[in-house]
Amino acid sequence: MRQLKAFVKKEFLHVFRDTRTMLILFGMPVAQIILFGFAISTEVRNIDLAVVVPQSSEVTRRLTEKFDASEYFTVRKILRSTDGIERYFRDGSISMAVAFTPGFADEMLSPEGAGIQLITDGSNTNTARTAAGYATAVIKDALSEGTAAEAAGIQTDVRMLFNPQMRSSYNFVPGVMGLIIILICAMMTSIAIVREKETGTMEVLLVSPMRPQIIILSKMMPYMALSIVNYLTILLLSVTLLDIPLSGNFWSLTLLSLIYIVVSLALGLMISTRTRTQLAAMLGSGMVLMIPVVFLSGLLFPVESMPGFFRVLSGAVPARWYIEGVKKLMIEGLPAGMVAKEFAILSGMAVFLLAVSIKNFKLRLQ
Amino acid sequence: MAIHAESLTKRFGNFTAVDNISFSVEKGEIFGFLGANGAGKTTAMRMLCGLSRPTSGKAVVAGIDIVKDPERIKKRIGYMSQRFSLYDDLTVSENMTLFAGIYGMREKDIAAKRTAVLTRLGLYDERDMLVGSLPLGWKQKLAFSVSIFHEPAVVFLDEPTGGVDPVTRRQFWRQIYEASERGITVFVTTHYMDEAEYCHRVSIMVDGHIAAMDTPSELKASLGAGTMDDVFYMLARNAERIG
Asked: What confidence score (pLDDT) does residue B24 get?
């Protein structure tokens, strides 16, 4: 016990003395979340808009005014038809167009409803989707102020384009959690262990009566603590700043995160047993962990739309199961029972990786 | 007897790193373990520290069998490596407390002894300075004090004075003599032949064997050499393995 206490204290001192790393570790999740929240509002602000009104009416006038009044749009042009509209997209004078059908006002009251076409610049998919989302919101908002009949008449069309920007932020937060935890636990742990090999202190430790398991355990502690703090920070920020509700059970989510933290620590340990220099450990965790997490976990590309081979491969990426579990628990608010598969897979990975890496950690430096 | 090795051998595949070496070191003796790079001295030292299991042969260090009980040996020995073995980002006294804690010493014993050792070293005023900010010579002195802080029976020094100027080296050897006078056995590897002269007894390893073992003056006399440097050269020049 005396050994463990002395050693754990040392590990915390290493981390706390390294102010630069501390700053990055605590700053990164905050920066990512804030950047993300901020990016959403800036990216789609002041979109240059053309409104295509073949036949002016009370409703189209009101909608045009609403668009112009919105902080997201500036109405640049009012056109009669969509013919040759690409020209304006090309010369950059507009980046979006809202086109009403010729008989818009009348159609609205008909049983089929009226149509509004949103034309966006698809070369920037994210902005286009976000802009379309906002346009939809503006239209919906404007019409809900009108008569019930007007709103009812238009609603089916509007729902088709339901809030895509919200969905991407829902996707992002679980992804950031998955990324940050693996970064801190795996990368920092492997670097911390390899650093002792590099400076020669590991040799001194191995000659000492410290058991290797205790050395490993103590090395993991500070990063485990850091990850928990970061997990809570991200959760707090996304609930307060990004207004993402924590729909599910907090404790289930925390338990899932703890298991994922153990998996990440074990991965870091495994990398440290295979590398000799801090640089190699960093590159190793970059290649082995970051790339799969970013590309295969569903953070950027949905797992469902991956080609078969990559879909199978993504099954081996712990972050995929974690992110999926977080989405279910946090966003969809499902009970823990529905996440049993994710819990089981992550726990299995944790046990397997820990066993392999502790076995690999050389007790005798041959 | 502090160290007793009998036919100690270590093979890696076909390569015999340490080939059937036998020697004994008395309690409190300063034993110089010399050899060119690749002669097998590090491997031999590793076995004696319980870090590496011998392929055959046996050895007893501080009364403990290295094959049967490698973990227990670790409590009875101290170790300082050629690469610097303290933590740069911890203070002088934190380093001392840490290693004392690792060797299982009680906190209140540590505090009292720490003050005494630091005062003797003349580092008491620097106790709250980060080790990284100390000059190399001081670090070396401190590292040695830390390695014998828990009063081990034997201390292993693996090229402890690499990269240190001659004045500091001499001071360092004064510390080694003090430890030896207190009854701590010192097992030291070195590249510096002037240091070999300071040892009570030296062994010179060539190609995994012990080529010669005696007091420095006997070795010089028997080979008709003027200095230990000449002794070493005469024995090691025919070595097949040069690292």
From this structure: 95
Contacts of A191 in chain B (CB under 8 A): none
Range of the domain at B203: 3-86+153-236
Least confident residue range of A145-154, A215-224, B5-14, B198-207: A145-154
> Which residue does chain B place closest to A207, by CA atoms?
B74
Q: Is B74 near chain A, with CB under 8 Å?
A: yes
In this complex, is the C-beta atom of B112 within 8 Å of any C-beta atom belonging to chain A? no
| pLDDT 10s digits, A279-333 | 888 888 888 778 888 888 877 777 777 788 888 888 888 988 998 898 888 877 8
Q: Please judge whether A13 and B77 are an interchain contact, meaning their C-beta atoms are less than 8 angstroms apart.
A: no
B79 contacts B156 by C-beta, under 8 angstroms: yes
For range B111-120, the mean pLDDT: 92
pLDDT tens figures, A184-196: 888 888 888 888 8
- What is the C-alpha separation between A241 and A234, in angstroms, rounded? 10
Q: Sign of the C-alpha dihedral, residues B195, B201, B206, B211?
A: positive
Taking the Cβ of residue A358 and every Cβ of chain B, the question of whether any pair is shorter than 8 Å is answered with no
The band of A145, judged by pLDDT with boundaries at 50, 70 and 90, is low
Which of B183, B174, B214, B195 is CA-nearest to residue B2?
B183
Domains of chain A, residue spans: 2-38+168-360, 44-162
Cβ distance B50 to A207 less than 8 Å, yes or no, reads yes
Q: Do B87 and A209 touch (CB under 8 A)?
A: no
Quick: pLDDT tens for B184-200.
999 999 888 888 899 99
pLDDT band at B243 (very low <50, low <70, confident <90, very high): low
CATH of the domain at B217: 3.40.50.300
Angle at B3 (CA atoms; ends A364, B4), nearest 5 degrees: 100
pLDDT score, position A146: 60
Quickly count: other Cβ atoms within 10 Å of residue B231's Cβ. 26
Query: Could you please report the per-residue DSSP string of B127-152?
Result: TTSBGGGS-HHHHHHHHHHHHTTT--
Beta bridge pairs of residue B61: B3, B64
Count: domains in chain B: 1
DSSP state of A339: G
Q: Please name the CATH architecture into which domain A44-162 falls.
A: 3-Layer(aba) Sandwich (3.40)
B14 assigned to some structural domain: yes
CA B151 to chain CA centroid, nearest Å: 14
Question: Residue A147: its pLDDT value, please?
Answer: 56
